[in-house]
């Protein structure tokens, strides 16, 4: 059964057709990567799933419930969580507080400090727990952002370029962490440019091009697809 | 047992990342300040003590603005509107009900509740209408000025509620002071030593209560919303509800100031909601340091006392100085003058400590 489904999803920004009739199904328990050239509409697709933008037409279903018009915070409460492309951490709060805000609605007060510690250890952010989040390095900010998304204990985790700016080692570690979460039952949908990372985690890959689903399949199928290479990989190599 | 652990967990929130000051040294200083404030009436004339309660009256409003603006990130010019609403409500209620049986205390609570309800209604349209930033300032200022205009034109005898005449621009007077029923005869809180202590106790309770609030889960969320409302929403928080809650609490504190002021002077005028009055709280809070309760408290007290001292030379002159002070703060110490002084002093202190650590 799909955990997430979009039906004929369309989004226009004025005269710009950014999401063009997307029919997409994400199976429960899957690790799925969304790839596509810059401006393909990947982040917009996420924002539609999150309710930050309302679609011009079409439907979004989550666990077979229509959530097309559901408020964002309610979607989150139902188990969707996101790590944005640009880290949206709370800069003037310390690292532990950032984590606390993600944890405090579902962790009992007595266990809160302990849970915060666990997550900070896991993220390797324990030494900087009392520092302001705004003073962290870019990589640490990424981890904190991922930690906040994971801290919500989501059923569906959306990650918009989770490894941007990370070293290959950090990228690999992120992949392993996501695989560990996946084994615990978390469904993952990630936008990613890093092909090694996609190969590491993805069960299936969807290529978005000009707001439409261009191709779908395993990583090997996608890499072997010459048309995809032309629009996406070609461009990536050209850079 | 459960209650005890509940109380201790609340008490631990008295200090936290959202408030300056922690540990023994801070609380020793706190005790010292409270002791000095408590001892002050012993060394001063009762008349002066009563007069100086005036300064305390405003601090509630400043702390409320600190919560809404400094912690919550919404600049409201509406504090004096709620000050006025509660002040007039107190007047109307007590003139009609009298001061027996503790009815003035009931009127205090009712007046603050009325200002809270008004804040809830205005806040609902503001936050659920997604008005923020400059527009929030403009709308709240407009509401305040409309209130002033409205009350100003109620001079005629047809404007009365029960036996209380609103009196328009002349202001409403002759309402009874807060009166505590007591077995040996009621204690009337005239501007005197008893009122001083009552207000001081209230101030300490509100200050400590707000410290707990901003270090609580609720406080964490409102600060997060100030930093990045979109992210807060994407962590599952109904941002507008939190903003509304903050606005109601902060505005009710302005209402409390309104009641205390009206009872203290047995008088309130529409000018207390005018343009000048509406902008002064912004100056107090900005100069002290809006993102912290303690700097706001001391900043407000300092500015108020300075303003009073300058008024001797003419109130227009004092206002110009206030304006200059605000501009200076924005340019030189945008976090607030008291807040900057505190952080400078603590930096010095840690550097000294580090140096003496090297030597030994
Ligand atoms: N709020 C908006 N208003 C108008 N146009 C928008 C808006 N958001 C996105 N767009 C446009 O929609 C298109 C798709 O943008 P989107 O951010 O979804 O692409 P993307 O696939 O995430 O790209 P990237 O790989 O660079 O992150 C772009 O042309 C962008 O300029
Ligand atoms: Mg994007």
UniProtKB/TrEMBL annotation, chain B:
Keywords: Cell membrane, Membrane, Transmembrane, Transmembrane helix. One of its GO terms (molecular function) is branched-chain amino acid transmembrane transporter activity. It is found in: Cell membrane. The keyword Ribonucleoprotein does not apply. InterPro entries: ABC_transp_permease, LivM-like. It is a multi-pass membrane protein. GO terms for cellular component: plasma membrane. The chain crosses the membrane at residues 26-43, 55-73, 80-97, 103-127, 134-151, 194-214, 244-261, 267-287, 294-313, 319-345. This is Branched-chain amino acid transport system permease protein. It comes from Phyllobacterium trifolii.
């Amino acid at each position: 059964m799909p955990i997430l489904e979009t039906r004929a999803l369309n989004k226009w920004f004025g005269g710009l057709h950014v999401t063009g009739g997307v029919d997409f199904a994400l199976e429960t328990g899957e690790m799925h990567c969304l790839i596509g050239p810059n401006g393909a509409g990947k982040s917009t697709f996420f924002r539609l799933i999150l309710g930050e933008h309302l679609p011009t037409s079409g439907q979004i279903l989550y666990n077979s419930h229509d959530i097309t018009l559901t408020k964002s915070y309610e979607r989150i409460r139902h188990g969707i969580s996101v790590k944005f492309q640009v880290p949206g951490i709370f800069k003037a709060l310390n690292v532990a507080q950032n984590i606390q805000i993600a944890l405090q609605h579902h962790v009992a007060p007595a266990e809160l400090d302990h849970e915060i510690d666990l997550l900070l250890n896991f993220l390797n952010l324990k030494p900087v727990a009392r520092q302001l989040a705004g003073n962290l390095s870019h990589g640490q900010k990424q981890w904190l952002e991922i930690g906040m998304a994971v801290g919500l204990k989501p059923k569906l985790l959306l990650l918009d370029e989770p490894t941007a700016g990370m070293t290959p080692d950090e990228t690999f570690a992120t992949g392993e962490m996501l695989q560990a979460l996946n084994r615990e039952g978390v469904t993952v949908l990630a936008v990613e440019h890093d092909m090694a990372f996609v190969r590491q985690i993805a069960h299936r890959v969807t290529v978005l091009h000009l707001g439409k689903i261009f191709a779908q399949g395993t990583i090997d199928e996608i890499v072997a697809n010459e048309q995809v290479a032309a629009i996406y990989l070609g461009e990536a190599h050209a850079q | 047992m459960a209650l005890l652990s509940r109380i201790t967990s609340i008490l631990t929130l008295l200090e936290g990342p959202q408030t300056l000051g922690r540990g023994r040294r801070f609380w020793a200083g706190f005790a010292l300040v409270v002791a000095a404030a408590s001892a002050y009436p012993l060394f001063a004339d009762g008349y002066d003590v009563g007069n100086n309660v005036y300064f305390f009256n405003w601090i509630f409003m400043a702390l409320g603005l600190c919560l809404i603006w400094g912690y919550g990130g919404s600049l409201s010019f509406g504090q004096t509107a709620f000050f006025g609403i509660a002040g007039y409500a107190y007047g109307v209620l007590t003139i009609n009900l009298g001061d027996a049986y503790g009815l003035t205390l009931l009127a205090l609570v009712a007046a603050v509740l009325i200002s809270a309800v008004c804040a809830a209604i205005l806040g609902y349209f503001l936050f659920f209408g997604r008005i923020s930033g400059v527009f929030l300032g403009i709308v709240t200022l407009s509401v305040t000025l409309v209130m002033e205009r409205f009350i100003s034109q109620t001079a005629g005898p047809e404007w009365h509620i029960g036996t209380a005449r609103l009196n328009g621009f002349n202001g409403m007077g002759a309402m009874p002071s807060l009166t505590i029923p007591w077995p040996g005869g009621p204690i009337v809180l005239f501007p005197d030593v008893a009122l001083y202590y009552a207000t001081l106790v209230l101030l300490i309770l509100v200050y400590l209560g707000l410290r707990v609030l901003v270090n609580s889960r609720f406080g964490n969320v409102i600060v997060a919303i100030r930093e990045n409302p979109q992210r807060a929403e994407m962590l599952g928080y109904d941002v507008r509800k939190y903003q509304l809650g903050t606005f109601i609490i902060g505005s009710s504190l302005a209402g409390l100031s309104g009641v205390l002021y009206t009872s203290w002077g047995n008088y309130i005028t529409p000018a207390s909601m005018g343009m000048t009055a509406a902008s002064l709280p912004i100056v107090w809070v900005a100069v002290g340091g809006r993102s912290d309760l303690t700097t706001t408290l001391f900043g407000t007290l300092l500015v108020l006392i300075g303003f009073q001292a300058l008024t001797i030379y003419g109130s227009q002159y004092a206002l110009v100085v206030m304006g200059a002070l605000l501009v200076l703060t924005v340019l030189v110490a945008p976090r607030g003058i008291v807040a900057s002084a505190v952080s400078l002093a603590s930096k010095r202190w840690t550097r000294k400590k580090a140096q003496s650590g090297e030597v030994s």
